[in-house]
Amino acid sequence: MHRKKQCEICNKKFYPNDLYPVALIRENTFNAAKTDFPTISREGYVCFPDLRKIHASYYEEILKEERGVLTQLEEEVFNSLKQHDILSENINEEFDASRTLGERVADRIAFFGGSWTFISIFGLVLLIWMAINSFQFFLDEPFDPFPYILLNLVLSCLAAIQAPIIMMSQNRQAAKDRLSQESDYQINLKSELQIRQLNTRLELFMRHSWQKMHEISRAQEEILQELDTSKK
């Protein structure tokens, strides 16, 4: 049975499968971790949650050097890396749940006003209005004779009310798009940083495996040489 070993960062004990050798951590990352954790050594081990924090802190410092100050979105990305949280979320559901009653009504009106149903109904109403006021066999005396001044007034009022409602809906759609873009930026940044971590680990793992294979090859050559010597 494998004995538990102590993590260099949190000082908790873990099984070997839950630890990562400090010797495989990249030199610049190790030096950055050394400033926060002076007691860390190449001979020890770190648990994977602390390893994520080390890499996140290292990339955070690099980004600060490149840009000076991190934005709130970037801070959330690094906190998510350290805590191993999920950034993906359904922006549409959260945004729609936060709408007020007036905003819901405005969106419904804007949606209906931009549909073929509205155009068909509105066109039919116009035709009926003009027919009633154009042919005397409907009414003895039309209430809005040609050139339909009352109809023009109704259309002007409708356009004056409909325009700001549509603008309100478009502003909320623009706000939703902005939130979606910010979420995409956070996810892309986190994915890029995690891919960098994986590439670094793969590179170090391959280098470490190559060293082990080289040592095994040398040991085999020495054994073969000893066997040849003994036969002679």
The domain count comes to: 2
Order of helices and strands: EEEHEHHHHHH
Distance between the termini: 44 Å
The main sheet orders its strands as 1-2
Task: Average the pLDDT over all residues and give the rounded result.
Answer: 79
Q: Count every helix, treating DSSP H or I runs of 4 or more residues as helices.
A: 7
Instruction: Please count the beta strands (DSSP E, at least 2 residues each).
Output: 4
How would you characterize the overall build of this protein?
This protein has 232 residues and is mainly alpha-helical. It has 2 domains: 1-85, no CATH class; 86-232. Helices cover 70% and strands 4% of the residues. It has 7 helices and 4 strands. It has helices spanning 27-36, 48-67, 72-83, 91-97, 101-113, 116-132, 149-231, and strands at 5-6, 13-14, 19-21, 45-47. The strands form 2 sheets. A two-stranded antiparallel sheet has the order 1-2. Strands 3-4 form a two-stranded antiparallel ribbon. Strand 1 (5-6) and strand 2 (13-14) form a beta hairpin. The chain is rod-shaped, with a radius of gyration of 35 Å. The two termini are 44 Å apart.
Features:
two-stranded antiparallel sheet; 232 residues; 4 strands; mainly alpha
Question: Would you summarize the structure shown here?
Answer:
The protein has 232 residues and is mainly α. It folds into two domains: 1-85, no CATH class; 86-232.
